[in-house]
TrEMBL record:
Species the sequence originates in: Methanolacinia petrolearia (strain DSM 11571 / OCM 486 / SEBR 4847)
GO biological process per UniProt: Mo-molybdopterin cofactor biosynthetic process
UniProt-listed InterPro entries: MoaB/Mog-like_dom_sf, MoaB/Mog_dom, MoeA-like, MoeA_C_domain_IV, MoeA_C_domain_IV_sf, MoeA_linker/N, MoeA_linker/N_sf, PBP_domain
UniProt keyword terms in alphabetical order: Molybdenum cofactor biosynthesis
GO cellular component, one term: cytosol
GO MF annotation list: molybdopterin molybdotransferase activity
Name of the protein in its database record: Molybdenum cofactor synthesis domain protein
Length: 620
């Protein structure tokens, strides 16, 4: 029988149901005072004793009776013999009611008395017992979030182990394909990282966690570990097994042990999410895809934890202009990751990959946007408010670069990070990068667009941006060549099998020009019409024995241990509109390209030609 989602409800209904069932969940315990920052007091906290515990001196000086100094002045010095020398914080005996600062005291020659030239007021420079707080007085009420600076006061008032709200979440990874972090996955294997991520996210909210070992795809074993987790935790989170496949057993296990509240939510990513209840405790089934798991934690579990007093860092909202259309599936609340940067007098946002398994989209983004279920999306240039996952100050120091993202852009990102300038790269392709430059929805484009005539970048920029002044800076020469296991050269391809790349791509144009220059008939090359997506896929095909050779870059060939015969050098350049050349961030990027540090990195890599690096030209 084909498994179906039991029930698919809206995001708002799902949050409402979670809060209705578990919004009153309570659990508390003590923590050492030093570990209480960020925790919420579960009950009122009272002072164990008065502070000060007795009258103390607020100054270095002498304690005395204020009545003994009556009428003292410069013209009428008064001699006092009943006094006690005190330092700041020393107890002041009850027989005294004032402290005179040491600089206002003159000690008499025989040391038996002092001379005062200014009368003292009662309780002058004396901190009365309980002045700060009295024994039994309220320090903080329940539901108060303890801040780091509060801890000093709590310790001063005798608090050692405050009673705070505590939750423990049991985290259960499932799947026979899982291998631990640090293990290189083989074919069909997946590194288990969702639970590690969830534990870090919960820890930021001061939720304690127990991480259970990975459980294979076995219904009985999954039921057993969930039963154990229910006994030991307040919240149970099961990773993977939440979809409707033949090896997805989480929903069945929850239903066997308790109640399945819903299975499936009209939200993307995160559609397969499960909510169950076992012994009054929430059991959440996370989708296996990492971005889906993140969205479920933030959008479903987050509101519950906020209600229970386990809030995370606040998220800033920012109005931005969209750098492209954002389409959505009507009927689904959709969450899109974006990169945001200040651009002139406003902010622009460019979407990252929307694949639920593309974790680099999360790393590269600094914001997200909710596309509500009733709408079809937002148009390019439309203003929207989104949620920042980093500070607005981060967006102020960010650069949006589109086009082709080769490894040198990552190395430049590393150099710029020293100045806290953050490079957000969008791998859009050459033509899309030029169009973004034309529309002025990026700061720069990294390009190696080869025309049919054999030139790089100039012809395409003039075609799409006629009459505009574009400043070009050479990044690096990307060495292209024939990768193989046996050192095959271009002239040996007719007797070999290859994989090719899409028509119009740089590698395809280079290969066709090489064939034409050597009068090689493409049809004589076995595999000329067999196309893979990109140079990386081509190298993988060679390394995997699916073909004898392919055109790729030197850096990729080295990665897969292949022999390499160079045939061409691509001209990889940064393109910037003239009006943005004075932007400090753009200037720092160009400085980084021209730096000796970057040139050393290129030379050390051994896969690039630094002959054009830092060279500038203008296209008009």
């Amino acid at each position: 029988m084909v498994k179906r989602y039991l029930s698919q409800i809206t995001l708002d209904e799902a949050v409402e149901k979670v809060l209705e069932l578990f919004g009153a969940l309570k659990s508390s315990g003590t923590v050492p005072l030093a570990e209480s920052a960020g925790r919420v007091a579960a009950s009122p906290v009272y002072a164990e004793y008065s502070v000060p515990v007795t009258n103390v001196s607020a100054m270095d000086g002498v304690a005395l009776k204020s009545s003994d100094t009556f009428a003292a002045s410069e013209q009428n010095p008064v001699s006092v013999r009943d006094f006690l020398r005190v330092n700041t914080g020393n107890a002041v005996p009850l027989t005294y009611d004032a402290v005179v600062m040491i600089e206002d005291v003159w000690f008499e020659e025989k040391g038996e008395g002092i001379t005062i030239r200014k009368s003292a007021r009662p309780w002058q420079n004396v901190r009365a017992a309980g002045e700060d707080i009295k024994q039994g007085e309220l320090i903080v009420p329940k539901n108060y979030r303890i801040r780091p600076f509060d801890i000093g006061a709590l310790g001063t008032y005798g608090v050692t182990d405050p009673v705070v709200k505590k939750l423990r979440a049991g985290l259960i990874p499932t799947g026979s394909e899982l291998v631990p972090i640090g293990t290189r996955p083989g074919p069909g294997q997946v590194v288990e990282s969702n639970i590690t991520m969830a534990a870090a996210w919960l820890g930021e909210r001061n939720v304690d966690t127990t991480c259970y070992p990975p459980t294979p795809d076995d219904p009985e074993m999954i039921r057993d570990v969930i039963s154990e987790a229910v006994l030991e935790n307040d919240i149970i989170i099961v990773s993977a097994g939440s979809s409707a496949g033949t090896r997805d057993f989480t929903a069945g296990a929850i239903g066997d042990l308790g109640r399945l509240v819903f299975h499936g939510i009209s939200m993307m990513p995160g559609k397969p999410m499960i909510l169950g209840e076992i012994e009054g405790k929430p059991v959440i089934g996370l989708p296996g895809y990492p971005i889906s798991a993140q969205v479920v934690l933030r959008e479903i579990l987050g509101p519950l934890l906020d209600t229970l007093g386990f809030s995370g860092p606040p998220s800033e909202k920012l109005e931005v202009s969209l750098a492209g259309d954002l389409t959505s599936n009507v009927g689904y609340d959709e969450f899109v990751l974006l990169s945001v940067a200040k651009h002139g007098d406003h902010y622009i946002a460019s979407q990252q990959s929307r694949g639920a398994g593309v974790q680099m989209a999360s790393i590269r983004s600094n914001a997200y946007l909710r596309l509500p279920a009733p709408i079809e999306g937002y148009a390019e240039g439309e203003s929207v408010f989104l949620n920042m996952t980093r500070s607005i100050a981060h967006a102020d120091r960010s650069l949006l670069v589109t086009g082709i993202m080769e490894p040198p852009m990552g190395w430049l990102s590393n150099i710029l990070s020293e100045e806290e300038i953050w490079l957000h790269n969008g791998n859009t392709g050459n033509i899309s990068g030029i169009i973004a430059l034309k529309k002025d929805i990026c700061h720069a484009a990294a390009l190696h667009a080869l025309s049919a005539e054999g030139g790089y970048n100039t012809e395409y920029i003039r075609q799409y941006m006629p009459g505009e002044e574009i400043h070009m800076t050479g990044i690096a020469g990307i060495i292209l060549g024939i990768a193989s296991k046996t050192g095959i050269g271009i002239d040996e391809l007719p007797g070999s099998s290859i994989v090719n790349q899409p028509a119009g791509s740089e590698c395809r144009i280079v290969l066709d020009r090489l064939f034409s220059g050597r009068s090689i008939d493409p049809e004589s090359v076995n595999g000329y019409s067999r196309v893979v997506n990109n140079p990386l896929s081509a190298a993988i095909a060679v390394a995997g024995g699916n073909c004898d050779a392919a055109l790729t870059s030197y850096s990729i060939a080295k990665t897969y241990g292949l022999e390499f015969e160079p045939v061409a050098v691509e001209q990889y350049e940064l393109a910037v509109r003239a009006e943005h050349m004075q932007d400090e961030r753009v200037m720092r990027l160009i400085d980084a390209i021209s730096s000796e540090e970057f040139r050393r990195v290129l030379d050390d890599a051994g896969s690039y030609d630094s002959g054009i690096t830092g060279k500038r030209r203008i296209i008009q």
